[in-house]
Specification:
Layout (H helix, E strand, L loop, with lengths): L11 H14 L10 H11 L2 H8 L6 H8 L21 E3 L2 E3 L3 E3 L17 H11 L3 E3 L7 H8 L4 E5 L5 H13 L5 E4 L9 H6 L11 H4 L2 H9 L12 H12 L4 H10 L10 H7 L4 E6 L2 H9 L4 E4 L13 H15 L5 E3 L6 H9 L4 E4 L1 H33 L14 H4 L1
Helix pairs in contact: 1-17, 2-17, 5-6, 5-17, 10-12, 14-15, 16-17
This protein binds flavin mononucleotide.
Flavin mononucleotide (FMN) binds next to helix 3.
Length: 427
């Protein structure tokens, strides 16, 4: 099941660990830093100020971004001894598909900001890394590469598609149709970003990728979107000489295969603030794929999502990028998981926002998640070492998860529950 030849899924922790230590004898260090803080710092040094602001930043005073990470410390693990854990497995089943580990790559838009050299160095190496490991990718609506190209790089490795629900029904329907054709096994509708949060780092730089044609490849490659662009009146103006900065902006757009009309049309149709639960029926009718809703924090929203036709939920606050001072995502997980279990025991609960280590994955599973979405850390790996960097980051997280399981006294991810946490923290 484990696709990477260097790692067997029965003992991923020790094999990654001993590969690192053995290479160290010959003076070789891990391809990307293992320590989460060092990984982030190294990626920050590699990225442009705009790239770092967009990827590393959050909403407002970034309290929620910090709280997401800090929350894990409030749920300590209670290790148990003298359990036979010689044979362990990270394998799990999600939506009927066997996976090597309870981990997927979170949808991350405008990924080209993390790399030098444009979109060819963004999604394709991520897809190849995911394929090496058999870990599913959630393809973003705001990707820098059309989903068909990412799908081709994924081969037969699993992929889901994340939908930002366009104001234009035809664009939304077309995205879903293309995702099905590209082999997506689920649609993840992101609910928490129908408008962008207030992001001071980006505001201070006057920078948003989409306005420059970055991260809108799903749109510019879409037939329904192209029809919309064609139906727009030509932009007014023309008589005046464009300023040098306007020319630079146009050249940036052109480099991304986008025109001013594409960007304006995108800004017009991106995401719908009028959506309500009743609208989910429209999507339910248009796809046979499982639908998960991402951005759930309140247990009532989880119940309503299931009532409205969703098949699962992703507990997430978008990595603290939307509502500052919102509750840490981990602190909402137990109540949401309980609500989902009570309503539909087989509906998957995924979790993201703040996962940085294998121990974090363990805690999220103990608090009721079936799997986690890893977010920023794999982007940092990409920034530092492309495909190898993404692969290394995921391996480090999974190696630590495996060793945490061994040392906590559990053999399989299915055994991880609240009883593995210190009693006061379990509820
Ligand atoms: C740079 C960046 C871009 C993102 N783009 C998307 C996106 O296109 N669609 C989406 O649903 N979530 C997006 N997210 C949110 C992630 O899917 C995920 O919820 C978040 O990264 C989790 O927080 P963490 O990275 O701090 O763990 C993005 C996050 C970041 C950091």
């Amino acid at each position: 099941m484990w696709h990477d030849r260097a790692v067997t899924h029965t003992d991923v922790g020790r094999s990654v660990q001993s590969a690192v230590y053995r290479a160290g004898v010959y003076g070789r260090r891990p391809v990307v830093p293992v320590a989460p803080g060092a990984l982030e710092a190294a990626a920050r040094r590699r990225m442009t100020a705009r790239g770092w602001g967009y990827i590393g930043g959050g909403a407002g005073a970034e309290r929620t971004m910090a709280a997401n990470v800090a929350a894990f410390a409030r749920h300590p693990i209670m290790p148990r001894q003298m359990v036979d854990v010689a044979e362990r497995s990270l394998a799990t089943t999600l939506l009927g598909r066997e996976l090597p580990a309870p981990l997927l790559l979170a949808p991350i838009g405008a990924l080209e900001l993390a790399v030098r050299g444009g979109p060819a160095h963004a999604e394709p190496p991520v897809a190849r890394a995911a394929r090496d490991l058999g870990v599913p990718v959630v393809i973003s609506s705001q990707a820098s590469t059309p989903m068909e190209a990412t799908a081709a790089a994924l081969g037969d490795s699993p992929r889901w598609f994340q939908l930002y629900w366009s104001k234009d029904d035809d664009v939304a329907a077309s995205f879903v149709e293309r995702a099905e054709a590209a082999g997506a096994e689920a649609i993840v509708v992101t609910l928490d970003t129908h408008v962008l949060g207030w992001r001071p780092r980006d505001l201070d730089l006057g920078y948003l990728p989409f306005v420059r044609g970055e991260g809108i490849a799903q749109y510019t490659s879409d037939p329904a979107f192209r029809r919309l662009v064609a139906s727009r009146p030509a932009p007014a103006g023309g008589g005046e000489r464009p300023t040098p900065s306007a020319v630079r902006a146009l050249l940036t757009m052109r480099r991304h295969g986008a025109t001013r009309a594409d960007v304006e049309t995108f800004l017009d149709v991106f995401s719908r603030s009028s959506l309500t639960w009743a609208d989910l029926a429209w999507l339910r009718e248009r796809t046979h794929l499982p639908i998960l809703v991402k951005g759930v924090q309140h247990p009532d929203d989880a119940r309503r999502a299931l009532d409205a036709g969703a098949d699962g939920v992703v507990v997430s606050n978008h990595g603290g990028r939307q509502v500052d001072n919102a509750v840490a995502s981990l602190d909402t997980l137990p109540a949401v998981a309980a609500a989902v279990r009570a309503a539909r025991p087989d509906a998957p609960v995924l979790f993201d926002s703040g996962v940085r280590t294998g121990a974090d994955v363990f805690v999220a599973l103990a608090l009721g998640a079936d799997a986690v979405l890893l977010g920023r850390p794999w982007v940092y790996g990409l920034a530092l070492a492309g495909q190898d960097g993404v692969r290394a980051v995921v391996q480090h997280v999974l190696a630590e998860l495996d060793l945490t399981m061994a040392l906590a006294g559990v053999r399989s991810v299915g055994e991880i529950g609240p009883e593995q946490l210190a009693p006061a923290a379990a509820n």
